[in-house]
C-alpha cells in the first residue's frame, strides 16, 4: 500500500487590573477613583464572561469510525480483479483502527499478478477531509474527476518500469463527508513483462471504489 489524515484553540481574555499603592489623598482623588471603578467593572465583566464561557458546539461527524474494509468489496469483484486471491482479503495492521483501516488482496495466477488495496480514513470534519483530498490529488497529476462518486473523487493511472518489468497502477481517491476512501489497483504480466492496459486498471480501480464508497454510505454512521 502506498498511499492518509486536526484541533481547536481556546483563547481566554484577561483584563489587567492596575493596583496602585499610594497615599490617602491619591486613593480619594477623582481620576484614580474613576480608574478603580473602571477596573472593577472590567473585572466583573471578565468574571461574567468566564462563568458564561464561549459557546462551544461540537463538530457533527457523519462517520465516527472506519468500517471493516475487507467487506467493502464484493466477492465477485475481488475474483474478477484479483484472480486466484483469497476473497476474504487480509486487513493491514493499523495504529488506530478507528481512524484508518486497509484491506489487501493479491495473487499471481499463471504469469499475471494483481494487487488491490482499499482504505477508509476518518477525519475530524468534512472540511478536514476536503483539505486532505485536495492535498492528495494535488500530488498526483495526470488524472481526472470521477463523476457521481462520493462528494468528490479523482482517479489516476501511472506506468512504472523496473528491470524491464512494467507495472501499471491505478489510484482512486474519494471524499465522502468526513471520510476518505482510497483504492489502489495494479498489475503486471511476468511472461510478457508488459503491464495491463490503462483502461483495464482504471476501470478496475473505479469499480472497487464505487463498492467501497457504497459500503461506507450504507454502513453504520455516528
List the main descriptive attributes of the protein structure presented here.
222 residues, alpha+beta, Jelly Rolls, 2 domains, 7-stranded antiparallel β-sheet, 5 helices, 7 strands, disordered N terminus
Can you tell me about this structure?
The protein is α+β, with helices and mostly antiparallel strands. It folds into two domains: 15-55; 69-218, Jelly Rolls (Sandwich), CATH 2.60.120. Helix content is 31%, strand content 27%. It has a seven-stranded antiparallel sheet, sandwiched between helices. It is globular. The two termini are 28 Å apart. The model is unreliable at 1-36, 38-43 and 45-57 (pLDDT under 50).
Measure the end-to-end span: 28 Å
- The CATH level-2 architecture of the largest domain is identified as Sandwich
Overall average residue pLDDT: 81
Radius of gyration of CA atoms, rounded to a whole number: 29 Å
Number of domains: 2
- In total, the number of strands is 7
Kindly identify the CATH topology of the largest domain: Jelly Rolls
Shape: globular
Number of helices: 5
Question: What is the strand arrangement across the widest sheet?
Answer: 1-2-3-7-6-5-4
User: Low-confidence segments, ≥5 residues, pLDDT <50?
Assistant: 1-36, 38-43, 45-57
Classification by helices and strands:
alpha+beta
Query: Approximately what portion of the residues adopt beta-strand conformation?
Result: 25-35%
Described by strand count, sense and barrel closure, the largest sheet is: 7 strands, antiparallel
Amino acid at each position: 500500500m502506498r498511499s492518509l489524515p486536526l484541533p481547536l484553540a481556546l483563547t481566554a481574555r484577561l483584563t489587567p487590573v492596575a493596583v496602585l499603592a499610594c497615599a490617602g489623598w491619591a486613593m480619594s482623588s477623582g481620576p484614580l477613583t474613576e480608574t478603580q471603578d473602571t477596573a472593577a467593572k472590567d473585572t466583573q465583566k471578565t468574571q461574567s464572561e468566564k462563568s458564561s464561557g464561549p459557546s462551544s458546539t461540537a463538530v457533527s461527524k457523519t462517520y465516527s469510525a472506519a468500517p471493516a474494509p475487507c467487506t467493502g468489496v464484493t466477492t465477485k469483484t475481488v475474483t474478477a480483479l484479483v484472480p486466484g486471491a483469497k476473497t476474504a482479503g487480509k486487513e493491514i495492521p493499523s495504529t488506530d483502527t478507528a481512524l484508518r483501516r486497509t484491506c489487501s488482496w493479491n495473487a499471481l495466477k499463471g504469469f499475471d499478478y494483481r494487487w488491490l488495496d482499499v482504505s477508509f480514513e476518518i477525519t475530524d470534519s468534512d472540511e478536514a477531509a476536503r483539505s486532505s483530498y485536495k492535498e492528495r490529488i494535488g500530488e498526483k497529476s495526470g488524472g481526472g474527476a470521477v463523476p457521481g462518486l462520493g462528494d468528490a473523487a479523482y482517479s489516476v493511472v501511472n506506468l512504472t518500469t523496473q528491470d524491464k518489468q512494467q507495472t501499471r497502477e491505478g489510484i482512486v481517491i474519494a471524499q465522502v463527508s468526513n471520510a476518505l476512501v482510497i483504492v489502489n489497483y495494479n498489475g503486471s504480466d511476468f511472461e510478457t513483462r508488459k503491464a495491463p492496459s490503462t483502461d483495464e486498471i482504471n476501470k478496475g480501480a473505479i469499480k472497487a471504489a464505487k463498492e467501497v464508497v457504497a459500503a461506507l454510505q450504507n454502513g453504520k454512521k455516528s
